């Protein structure tokens, strides 16, 4: 799978924003570049191509994204916390359709940009790939594999309560 990196690196401070691409390693907007770069000890804010071109930096970036809870101190879990069972969804999460599984990880990694739009055949490729890799490794893929009916983490409860009508 090809990586796509969005390089809006206009600010070293960054901002919490939405992304618009699917499942590749997600570093979008200056907030992500600044935060990830600081976390891994490389200036990827001004040298974003390092993530795509240097395998060590690419690996460190992926591992940082996997282990670090995203976004502005929101209390959103890391993908690792979800997949290892360390995250227990709140009532707000459950009302928003978010429960442990690959779908919640997808929601975090894509900043919810592909979630909550109902079934979309384009999104099924990632789920099929995840199931295949799980099978190859001899592990159960689990439940809640997509985020088709999840609201993005951080959506308000008033929107979340309407998720059941989707």
Automatic annotation (TrEMBL):
Domain of life: Eukaryota
CDD domains (UniProt xref): chitinase_GH19
Organism (species): Ficus carica
Single Gene Ontology BP annotation: chitin catabolic process
Keyword tags: Chitin-binding, Disulfide bond, Plant defense
This protein's name: Glycoside hydrolase family 19 catalytic domain-containing protein
GO molecular function: chitin binding; chitinase activity
PANTHER family reported for this sequence: CHITINASE 12, CHITINASE-RELATED
Every Glycoside hydrolase family 19 catalytic domain range: 25-147
One Pfam family in the UniProt entry: Glyco_hydro_19
InterPro entries linked to this entry: Glyco_hydro_19_cat (IPR000726), Lysozyme-like_dom_sf (IPR023346)
Lineage: Eukaryota, Viridiplantae, Streptophyta, Embryophyta, Tracheophyta
